[in-house]
Amino acid sequence: MSNSKYEIGIVDTRAVIKALSGIGYDFRDYALTAFKHRLEHVISLHALKNADGLIAKLLSSPDFVDQFLYDVIPATTEMFRDPSFWRALRDEVLPEVMKSVRPKIWLAALDSGEELFSIAIALKEHDLLNQVQIFANYNSDKRLAQIKAGLLDPRNMENNEANYLRMSGHNSFGSYYTTKGHAVVFDPELIQNVTFLKQKTAITETTGAAKLILFRNRTIYQNHFLQERNLQTLTNSLVPGGFLALGIKETLENTNTSNKFIVFNENEKLYKRKTM
Amino acid sequence: MYKAVIIGGSAGSFQVITRILSSMPPNFPLPVLLCLHRLKHVRSGFVEALSIKSTLPVIEPMDKEQIKPGRAYLAPANYHMYVELGNKIALSTEEVVNHSRPSIDLSFITAAQIYREKLIGIILSGANRDGAYGLKKVKDHGGIAIVQNPAECQVKTMTETSLKMTPVDHIFNTNDIIKYLQKVK
Question: Torsion angle, CA of A263/A264/A266/A267, rounded to 10 degrees?
Fold first, then answer.
């Protein structure tokens, strides 16, 4: 992404949010500055000139709505982002999670394939992939099709591999994907048993009784109200003793759900749901 | 009269920023936002290194942290740092901009939109053009644009690109940046 060519104001941003609301997508509780920046990105990407152009396109072209969702939600652009988090997840959390039979692991805000393939690889390297149930939310059909095909952004491969090495992966990173021209195709078998749940803007579809929930770097795009609402939903979906992973710059401190958790790993923002 | 100072730097800026932070009046009335290029995968060490000589507390903020005067906020590794409505920090994992995350442009643009003419933007030494567009936005919104004198910079690309893009208010050596900030209200 380069700098957006177009700058829109707060009034324009609110007008787009209102239009989205009218077609069933509630972005009112996204963090305003960041969302405005995302809208500028979309306007720039599709040469829509201004907020009115974006609104007209959203209202006139149902196909564009899915493309909009694909573009407006920031993607996680790295596999194994924060390698020390992935080491802690693998070495400290998964052994606990696997004490349950076929535990549910839920990626509650799937924005790209990077996190999903990361966890699938981490599980596979311990022969655990067939012993868990993975659920993943998504909101753009285009995104889902890409993920199912194993297509991750080829521009990030150098970084992905460096992260894999830093988290001390047990295999050869190159064994998980093939290249076709410029495309990088991860082995779709890694995610063949994943159940995908479609959602709009707030988390509405839940697995229930999850043992591990990944919700990393998602509350940063939300205002306090939506953060609280989503964290409440996630808390209710975790079994006692289950784990919640946030991004390393997100915290449960000062939220209504903090008293439901103990801090399992402060640096990596891993929380464990209290048993009572 | 002003509401914030924002400083961007890359290669060759560490010593400059250390000198600036060590010379800030302890009762400095504004927040100082620091967006400095850094290794994406090294999370710790930088804030500690800057803190050693700084007269202001240097903080790597959490998302939505309230911005307070007299503190320096350092953009964390591998996150963009925005200023959000309500005078808060917002962090983002969006795509790299100008090969950078944190991107100086993004920090400067969002700060300019929030603080408008009450912002002082400073671009230091750097090997990348990131920051030049951001400084232009500070100026466009009526803020003060300052560039470290390229002749003094270890690497001139960032300051020279900024000067090409924006008619700045001041071109200062480090000592003059320090003197200027000591008088800021």
Answer: -160
Residue ranges of chain B whose CB lies within 8 Å of a chain A CB: 40-41, 43, 61-64, 76, 78-79, 82-85, 90-98, 105-106, 109-110, 113-114, 133
Q: Give yes or no for A28 touching B (CB within 8 A).
A: no
Return the CATH number at B35: 3.40.50.180
Per-residue pLDDT at A1 exceeds 50: no
Q: For chain B, what is the domain count?
A: 1
SS3 B171: strand
Residues 6+ apart with CB under 8 A from A256: A228, A231, A232
Q: Is B91 within 8 Å of A163 when comparing Cβ atoms?
A: no
Told to judge if B10 belongs to the known catalytic residues of this protein, a careful annotator would answer yes
Q: Are A147 and A191 in contact (CB under 8 A)?
A: yes
Q: What is the pLDDT of residues A99-154, one digit of tens each?
A: 999 999 999 977 789 999 999 999 999 999 999 999 999 989 999 999 999 999 99
State the greatest distance between any 2 C-alpha atoms of chain B, in Å, as a whole number.
39
Radius of gyration of chain B (CA): 14
Query: What is the 3-class SS of A23-78, one letter each residue?
Result: CCCCCCCECHHHHHHHHHHHHHHCCCCCHHHHHHHHHHCHHHHHHHHHHHCCCCCC
Domain range for residue B137?
4-183
Q: A51-60 and A10-22 are packed helices; what angle lies between their axes, rounded to 10 degrees?
A: 10
Distance CA B72, CA B31 (A): 6
By CA distance, what is B112's nearest residue in A? A33
**Does B44 qualify as catalytic in the annotation?**
no
- Domain layout of chain A by residue ranges: 10-72, 83-273
Closest C-alpha among A263, A264, A244, A238 to residue A253: A263
Q: Are A220 and A250 in contact (CB under 8 A)?
A: yes
Q: In chain A, what residues touch B41 (CB-CB under 8 Å)?
A: 83, 162-163, 166
Chain B residues with beta carbon closer than 8 angstroms to that of A249 = 61-63, 76, 79, 91
User: Tokens representing B136?
Assistant: 């232009």
Determine the Cα–Cα distance for residues A44 and A47; give it in Å rounded to an integer.
5
Q: How does pLDDT run across A31-68, given as a tens digit for each residue?
A: 998 899 999 999 999 999 999 999 999 999 989 999 99
- Distance of alpha carbon A147 from the chain centroid: 12
Q: How many Cα atoms are found within 13 Å in the side-chain-facing hemisphere of A98?
A: 14
B105 is catalytic: no
Q: What is the pLDDT of residues B123-134, one digit of tens each?
A: 999 999 999 999
Task: Look at the domain A83-273 and name its fold.
Answer: Rossmann fold (3.40.50)
Indicate the helix (H) or strand (E) that contains B165. Answer: helix B157-165
